[in-house]
Amino acid sequence: LERFHSRASQRQKEHCHHAKDQTKVGGYFRAGEEPDYDADADGFSDEEAGNSRVEDFAVHLRMEGGSSAPATATDEGEVRGGRDAAAVWGNQQWPGGSLGRAFRPAVTRHAEAMVRAGHALHRALKASRLGLRDYAVGGNGIGNGNGNASLMRMLQYPPGATHGHMQAHTDYEAFTLIHQQSRGLQVLQDGEWRWAPVSHSAGQYILMAGDMLEFWTNGSVRAQRHRVCNESRKEKRNSLVVFFAADDDTDASPVAPPEGEGEGRVGSYLAACAKAGVRPEEDQRLTQVLHLNARIHEAEALTAKRRRRREADKDDGGALEQGRTRMK
């Protein structure tokens, strides 16, 4: 992660940009491409809210696993065969050359470890008494296997809160694993923002519930609202985040609303249905992919709205300055 973000040239990064072939796939995300999440900005100024400079290399996880043969890398950084190669979807951009030869095998090995961890957590959650829907996290015997949006993101935040932040949100998937080498992640607990613990070893991760767990359990498990703020004014902050999604067509509706519970418990699910244009009263169902797409569309719309407002403010400021110049 450090080698890619800090040592790779911008040209090398652009070589593996996620939209290089006009299609959004896994790969490098430039600083400034992270969308806005929170309409209230949670304490950030309007300028800061649309000014995050987080960089990211994202990997789409292939959740069904693969063969046990070792993977090999070519001169162009392509990995062929093996369990490691099978951990990553094919619609993925990678750096080439010597950087790719070192980077891609290391990333795919870690992706395979994350796939195993995701399935272990999936089994543990299903065996619990949370009342979960019989769901899948990617080709694990449930669901039609028609797609899965599980994702591993390798993020680097620049120094300082103005650019080194991510706005408050909940994750759209089932659950998330987070590894952070320095403080930055904040979680909302009892109405207060609190710092999440730092990962003191390579195998130490924070487990966080996402929207789908909240929907399935009818609010017994709450999706964790969180944000990121790099408090260091000198040091960059690296983190590795793995989002485990249910299969695209997985039903998001609560398993069995508790008797006597009011609308407050199912409110988050109904609100999500409204955003996705789903009508439960007409036997329509919200799925993982519909929820994911609705939340992404909401974030992109907010980003565009803030961008237009900043441009209008800039134009107004320029016109005011011209007026003052004429008066002089």
Instruction: Characterize the overall form.
Output: globular
Largest sheet features? 6 strands, antiparallel
Strand content: 15-25%
- The total of helices stands at 8
Low-confidence segments? 65-85, 139-145
Radius of gyration: 21 Å
Alpha-beta content class:
alpha+beta
Series of H and E elements: HHEHEEEHHEEEEEEHEEHH
Average pLDDT score: 79
Reading side by side through the largest sheet, how are the strands ordered?
1-2-5-12-7-10
Helix content: 25-40%
How widely separated are the two ends?
54 Å
Total strand segments = 12
Layout: helices, strands, pairs:
Blueprint: H1 2-7, H2 10-15, E1 27-29, H3 46-49, E2 55-60, E3 72-73, E4 79-80, H4 82-86, H5 97-127, E5 151-157, E6 165-169, E7 175-180, E8 185-189, E9 192-195, E10 206-209, H6 211-216, E11 226-229, E12 237-244, H7 263-276, H8 288-327
Antiparallel strand pairs: 1-2, 2-5, 3-4, 5-12, 6-11, 7-10, 7-12, 8-9, 8-11
Describe this entry's structure for a reader.
The chain starts with a helix and ends with a helix. The protein is α+β, with helices and mostly antiparallel strands and about 325 residues long. A hairpin with a 2-residue loop joins β8 (about 185-190) and β9 (about 190-195). Helix content is about 35%, strand content about 15%. The strands form three sheets. Strands 1-2-5-12-7-10 form a six-stranded antiparallel β-sheet. Strands 6-11-8-9 form a four-stranded antiparallel β-sheet, with no helix packed on it.
